[in-house]
Specification:
The complex is a heterodimer of chains A (291) and B (285). Chain A has 291 residues and is an all-alpha fold. In chain A, 66% of the residues lie in helices and 0% in strands. Chain A contains 13 helices and no strands. Chain B is built from 15 helices and 2 strands. At the A-B interface, helix 1, helix 3, helix 4, helix 5 and helix 9 of A face helix 1, helix 4, helix 5, helix 6 and helix 7 of B. Chain A: Keywords: Cell membrane, Membrane, Transmembrane, Transmembrane helix, Transport.
Chain lengths: 291, 285
C-alpha cells in the first residue's frame, strides 16, 4: 500500500467512518442528556439534545426505589456466582476434552458436540427447571448455562497450544493429573481465564430471557427484566407492573426516570468495556480457529 | 475432573430430551407422563393444518433473508473501509466505538429503540414535531417492523462482525498487493481483485453458519419488539413456542413445534455444510 498524500477516497472513507461512529454514540449521548435534565423544568415530550438545567434528581429518584436495589441484588448474585461456577465447569471439562488417549474421551467429546447441533428446546428445559423445583429461584438463571460447547472448544484449543513437554516433565516428577492441571495448566491459562470471566460476566449481567421464564416474583427480577418493564412494557398495551405507589412524593416526568434507569443498568458494562475490548477481540479469533 | 461437566450435560442438556417425547402425547401435567395419552403425530398435524405454521415460516424466512441481504454484508464493507485507514490512532478509536454496542443487552438496544421511535416520547417524533411535520407511529406499524429489526442488528453487531474479516484481511499476502500495484491496479481494483478473493473462504463459512441458523432469528430481540399491532408480521417460531408453551401451558403442542424447528435447523446446518464441501470450501466439520 502506498504511503503519502491523502487521496480523495481517503477523505470520503474517513468521513463515512466518523459518521458511523457518531451513529453508534448518539443514542448514549441523547439518553445521558435527558437523564441529566432537571425534572422540574423538563416538559414532557419536549425536544432537546443538551441538558437544559443540569440535575441528578432523576437518578436520585431511581436510586430511591426499592425495586432497583432488589434487582441489582439479583443481578450481582447471578453475575458473581455464575461467573465463578462457569469458569470452574468450563476450565475443568475443557481439560478433559484434550485427553485424547483417556478412556471415555470419545464419549465426552460427542456428548458436547451433539449439543452444539441439537437441543431439547425451550419447553422441555422449562419443564425440567419446574421439576427440579427451581421456579422463582435465582439458581434457575445460573444452572442451565454453567458451560457451553463453544466455550469448551475455545478453551480446549487454548490448552492444546500449551507445549505438551511441560505436562510430561511434571508427570515424570511424579505429579498426577489433578496436580498437573492445578500447578501447570491453570497458571498458564490466565489470559484465557480473564477473557472468559469477562465474557461470562457480561452474559450473566445481560440475563433477560431466563428471567422472564423462571422468575415471577418482581422482588427477584434481574435488572434487565426491571428495565424492560420500566421502558418497553409500559409503552405497550400490557402496561408496566412496577408499582410507584411506594413513594410518597410525585415522581418526576417518567421520561427522565426511564433514561436514568437505562443509564444505571448499562453503566457497569460501559465501565468494564475498555478491559473487555482488549480481551475479547482475541477471544473471538481463538473461537474461529478450528479445534 | 470430568465429573462436574459430565453431570452438567447429563442433567441440564440430556435429561430434558426426555421431554421431547411429550410432543407425541396429549400431555396433562395433572395426570403426569405415564398416564397421559399417546397421540402419535396429532400435534404436528394440528400445527401444519390448523395451526400457524405458514405465517410463522413466512415471517421467519422474511427476517432471515432481509438479514442475509442487508446485515450480513455490512461488516465486510466496514472491515474493508477500516483496512484502508492508515492513521492508526483513528482506526483504534473507531474500532473501540463500533465494538461497544455488541456488549449491550437486547433490553438496552430495544429500550434505545423505544426512546427514539415511540409515538409519544420518541426522539424522532419530537424532532418531527419541532420542525413542524406530522408525527408517525413507527413501533406499531407492521411495515416498519422488519426495518427496525435489521437496523438494530446492524447497529449492535456490525462493528463486532468486522473483527473476523479484519483478521482474514491481515492474513493476505502483501506481495499480492505489490504485484497488483506493478500491474497498475488502483485501490478499488486491489480490493476487488486481491482482498475479496483472499477472504472468500471466510465469507463462505460465515454464510453457511448463517444459513444453518436461518430459523433462529433473534428470539430475545423479537420478543421485546413484539406488540399486538405487529404480531402478524413479527411472530416467529421461538416466540410462538414461548407463547403456547410457557404462557398458555400447551406443553405437548409447543414441544412439537419446537421439535420441528430443531430438526429443520439441524437439516439446514448439515445441508449447508454439504454444499460448502461441494463448492470446494473447507466446511465446518
Amino acid at each position: 500500500m502506498t504511503k503519502g498524500k491523502l487521496q480523495f477516497g481517503d477523505v470520503v472513507n474517513y468521513i463515512v467512518l466518523t459518521l458511523i461512529s457518531l451513529t453508534m454514540l448518539f443514542p448514549f449521548f441523547y439518553v445521558f442528556s435527558v437523564s441529566l435534565t432537571d425534572p422540574d423544568t423538563y416538559v414532557q415530550g419536549e425536544f432537546l439534545l443538551i441538558p437544559k438545567d443540569f440535575s441528578l434528581d432523576a437518578y436520585k429518584f431511581v436510586l430511591g426505589t426499592g425495586q432497583l436495589w432488589n434487582s441489582l441484588q439479583s443481578t450481582v448474585f447471578i453475575t458473581v456466582v455464575g461467573t465463578v461456577l462457569n469458569l470452574f465447569f468450563t476450565m475443568t471439562f475443557a481439560y478433559v476434552l484434550t485427553k485424547n488417549g483417556m478412556p471415555g474421551w470419545k464419549f465426552f467429546t460427542y456428548m458436547v458436540l451433539l449439543i452444539l447441533f441439537f437441543n431439547a428446546g425451550l419447553v422441555p428445559s422449562y419443564l425440567l427447571i419446574k421439576e427440579l423445583g427451581l421456579m422463582n429461584s435465582l439458581w434457575a438463571l445460573i444452572l442451565p448455562g454453567l458451560t457451553n460447547p463453544w466455550a469448551l472448544f475455545v478453551v480446549r484449543s487454548f490448552y492444546k497450544s500449551i507445549p505438551g513437554s511441560l505436562e510430561e516433565a511434571a508427570y515424570i516428577d511424579g505429579a498426577n493429573d489433578l496436580q498437573i492441571f492445578q500447578k501447570v495448566i491453570l497458571p498458564l491459562s490466565k489470559p484465557i481465564m480473564a477473557a472468559f470471566s469477562l465474557f461470562f460476566a457480561v452474559g450473566l449481567w445481560n440475563t433477560y430471557l431466563s428471567g422472564i421464564f423462571y422468575i415471577q416474583d418482581p422482588q427477584k427480577w434481574p435488572l434487565q427484566v426491571f428495565l424492560s418493564q420500566m421502558i418497553i412494557e409500559s409503552n405497550t398495551s400490557m402496561g408496566s407492573s412496577i408499582n410507584f405507589d411506594e413513594f410518597n412524593r410525585v415522581p418526576p416526568p417518567s421520561e427522565t426516570i426511564k433514561m436514568a434507569s437505562l443509564v444505571l443498568v448499562m453503566l457497569p458494562i460501559l465501565v468494564v468495556y475498555p478491559f473487555l475490548q482488549k480481551h475479547f477481540a482475541k477471544g473471538v479469533l481463538l473461537g474461529s480457529v478450528k479445534g | 475432573m470430568a465429573l462436574p461437566g459430565f453431570l452438567f450435560f447429563l442433567i441440564m442438556k440430556y435429561l430434558p430430551m426426555w421431554g421431547i417425547l411429550l410432543a407425541f402425547q396429549d400431555y396433562n401435567p395433572f395426570k403426569g407422563f405415564w398416564e397421559s395419552e399417546w397421540v402419535g403425530f396429532e400435534n404436528f398435524k394440528t400445527f401444519f393444518t390448523y395451526g400457524d405454521f405458514w405465517p410463522l415460516l413466512r415471517n421467519t424466512l422474511t427476517i432471515s433473508i432481509l438479514n442475509l441481504i442487508f446485515f450480513f454484508p455490512a461488516p465486510i464493507v466496514l472491515a474493508l473501509m477500516l483496512n484502508e485507514v492508515r492513521a492508526e490512532a483513528f482506526k483504534r478509536i473507531t474500532q473501540t466505538i463500533i465494538y461497544l454496542p455488541h456488549f449491550l443487552s437486547w433490553v438496552i438496544v430495544v429500550s434505545f429503540t423505544f426512546l427514539f421511535f415511540s409515538f409519544d416520547i420518541g426522539f424522532l417524533n419530537k424532532a418531527l414535531n419541532f420542525m413542524g411535520f406530522a408525527e408517525i407511529s413507527i413501533l406499531s406499524e407492521p411495515r416498519y417492523f422488519y426495518g427496525l429489526l435489521v437496523g438494530q442488528n446492524v447497529w449492535k453487531e456490525v462493528g463486532w462482525g468486522t473483527i473476523i474479516f479484519l483478521a482474514a484481511i491481515a492474513g493476505v499476502d502483501q506481495q499480492l498487493y505489490e504485484a497488483a500495484t506493478v500491474d497498475g491496479a488502483g485501490r478499488l481494483r486491489k480490493i476487488w481483485h486481491v482482498t475479496l478473493p483472499a477472504i472468500r473462504s471466510t465469507i463462505v463459512i460465515l454464510m453457511i453458519l448463517k444459513l444453518g441458523d436461518m430459523l433462529d432469528v433473534g428470539f430475545e430481540q423479537i420478543l421485546l419488539m413484539l406488540n399486538p399491532m405487529v404480531q402478524n408480521v413479527g411472530e416467529v417460531f421461538d416466540t410462538y413456542v414461548y407463547q403456547q408453551g410457557i404462557l398458555s401451558g400447551n406443553f405437548s403442542y409447543s414441544i412439537a413445534v419446537g421439535l420441528f424447528k430443531s430438526v429443520a435447523g439441524l437439516i439446514l446446518v448439515v445441508g449447508g455444510n454439504y454444499l460448502a464441501k461441494k463448492a470446494g470450501e473447507d466446511g465446518l466439520y
